[in-house]
């Protein structure tokens, strides 16, 4: 009887990879907790970020420029920290990034001057859109890839996305409730919005402590990696080296920056090209602009909007629980393409509904698909490049994505200033749908056979 009752739970934990995560090292749990808290803070501020700038009488074009410069500052910070992370130390890098959150959150809570806020956003770490920003993701994903075996990476990385989505869901709901609660107590809208930024400062403080609690096993020098890369400089697989012993760890390099090999650069170049259009679209229709658009169009209260956006993150978390299993069964490429294209079309259709309920349904449906390609993409990168270059490669990919995202807010700000706000979502959806053929065209010699092939068995087959 007991075994019958436990059977559904066993199926769930096995299918979603939760059992794998629970059995993972303590550092995995600390990284998941760190990211969940960070996304909680980002989610809370994304709900009111554009509204806060508007309460300071900042015009829409300047608002778009503010977000663009914030992303450009993130690029500089991310490049510096991700390329030096394995020399400086991954734990120290995460702690420094968390200190940036503390700086930016405190400044936004206390200051109201446009240039002071912009300086804090550029130098510190704050997310206008509620999406990941700063050096964290590259360092955390490369660390997760080191501390778990290759066959477990899709599941652990999927839960890395799931816990982030759950954090964001709680953040947007909590942020909306906090704003309405403060305004009910007589706070002005701008004051209530500013109060939300204390969450960022608090989370930054907690994450500094969590980074310090991680073990030395997180560091690249202490991690074991395979001496023979999955793809060597000639593109040959490591099938013949199956029985070879891993090469000994090299001594720490004196160079301050990680060097990327020719084979990894080839993968990196393709990925950066692939993500360019998609990232511009992400910048044009980031969560801050979605929240701002719905508020302007439907006059929705912060708590109601927070509930809607929280629902989208919960649905996203639920769908991503099965991303690892889906990738293992369909292959990484099919998972990325089959989820990416429909979600892009739904984004383009966001201006169509004439009611808040209709827009909410569309957002929730899109949320079920929009992030399911993240874990397969990260698993592919982790398996396609040399282990000692993983942090740098993931850092460059994230920086390239952020660079292209920085183009989007300026475009949306100009369109919104001219009364064409809805057109931004149509354009964003079209741009995000563009990389579909590029995913299909990726070369087979970059696939990780242990994580299922990135391509179809029949390369001539079309979707």
From TrEMBL:
Region Disordered, as annotated, extends over 233-254
User: What is any Pfam family matched here?
Assistant: MFS_1
Membrane disposition: Multi-pass membrane protein
GO cellular component, as recorded: fungal-type vacuole membrane
State the superkingdom: Eukaryota
**Protein location:** Membrane
Question: Which keywords accompany this UniProt record?
Answer: Membrane, Transmembrane, Transmembrane helix
Kindly list the GO molecular function terms attached to this UniProt entry.
transmembrane transporter activity
Transmembrane spans:
39-57, 63-81, 93-111, 117-136, 157-179, 191-211, 267-293, 313-332, 344-365, 411-431
Q: What is this protein called?
A: MFS general substrate transporter
């Amino acid at each position: 009887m007991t075994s019958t009752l436990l059977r559904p739970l066993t199926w769930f934990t096995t299918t979603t990879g939760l059992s794998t995560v629970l059995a993972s090292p303590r550092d995995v749990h600390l990284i998941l907790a760190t990211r969940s808290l960070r996304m909680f803070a980002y989610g809370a501020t994304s709900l009111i970020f554009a509204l806060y700038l508007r309460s300071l009488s900042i015009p829409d074009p300047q608002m778009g420029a503010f977000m663009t410069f914030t992303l450009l500052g993130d690029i500089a910070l991310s490049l510096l920290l991700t390329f030096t992370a394995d020399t400086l130390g991954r734990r120290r890098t995460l702690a420094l990034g968390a200190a940036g959150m503390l700086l930016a959150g405190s400044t936004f809570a206390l200051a109201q001057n446009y240039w002071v806020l912009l300086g804090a956003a550029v130098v510190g770490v704050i997310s206008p859109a509620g999406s990941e920003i700063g050096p964290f993701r590259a360092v955390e994903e490369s660390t997760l890839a080191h501390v778990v075996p290759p066959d477990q990476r899709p599941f652990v990385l999927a839960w890395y996305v799931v816990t982030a989505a759950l954090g964001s869901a709680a953040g947007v709901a909590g942020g909306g409730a906090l704003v309405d609660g403060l305004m009910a107590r007589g706070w002005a809208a701008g004051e209530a919005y500013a109060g939300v930024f204390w969450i960022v400062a608090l989370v930054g403080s907690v994450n500094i402590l969590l980074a310090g609690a991680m073990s030395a096993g997180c560091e690249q020098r202490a991690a074991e990696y395979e001496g023979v890369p999955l793809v060597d400089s000639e593109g040959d697989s490591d099938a013949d080296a199956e029985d070879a012993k891993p090469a000994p760890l090299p001594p720490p390099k004196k160079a301050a920056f990680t060097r990327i090999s020719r084979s990894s650069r080839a993968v990196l170049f393709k990925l950066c090209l692939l993500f360019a259009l998609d990232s511009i679209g992400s910048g044009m229709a980031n969560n801050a602009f979605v929240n701002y658009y719905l508020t302007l169009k439907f006059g929705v209260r912060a708590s109601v909007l927070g509930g809607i956006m929280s629902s989208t993150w919960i649905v996203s978390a639920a769908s991503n629980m099965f991303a690892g299993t889906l990738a293992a069964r369909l292959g990484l490429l099919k998972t990325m393409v089959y989820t990416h294209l429909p979600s892009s079309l739904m984004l383009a259709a966001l201006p169509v509904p004439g009611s808040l309920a209709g827009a909410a349904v569309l957002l929730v449906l899109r949320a079920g698909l929009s992030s399911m390609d993240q874990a397969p993409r990260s698993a592919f990168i982790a398996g396609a490049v040399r282990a000692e270059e993983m942090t740098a490669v993931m850092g460059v990919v994230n920086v390239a994505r952020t660079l292209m995202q920085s183009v989007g807010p300026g475009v949306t700000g100009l369109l919104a200033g001219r009364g064409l706000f809805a057109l931004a979502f149509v354009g964003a959806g079209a741009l995000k749908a563009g990389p579909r053929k590029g995913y299909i065209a990726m070369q087979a010699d970059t696939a990780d056979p242990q994580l299922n092939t990135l391509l179809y068995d029949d390369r001539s087959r079309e979707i």
